[in-house]
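USER: If only I could read backbone structure tokens as easily as an amino acid sequence. It would mean a lot if you studied the pair and described how this chain folds. Here is the record:
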Amino acid sequence: MSNITYVTKETLDQMILELNQLKSVGRSEIAKAIAEAREKGFKRKC
């Protein structure tokens, strides 16, 4: 079952910019935060 969502060109451009930002800068920031949490002894619960 797929839901189709229509967006304007401006919204699509904004979403693409956000995705690219998350793929580059955001990913490295998250990796740093995870590394810091591990250093402080954070344990992941499964």
User: Anything to note?
Assistant: The radius of gyration is 17 Å.
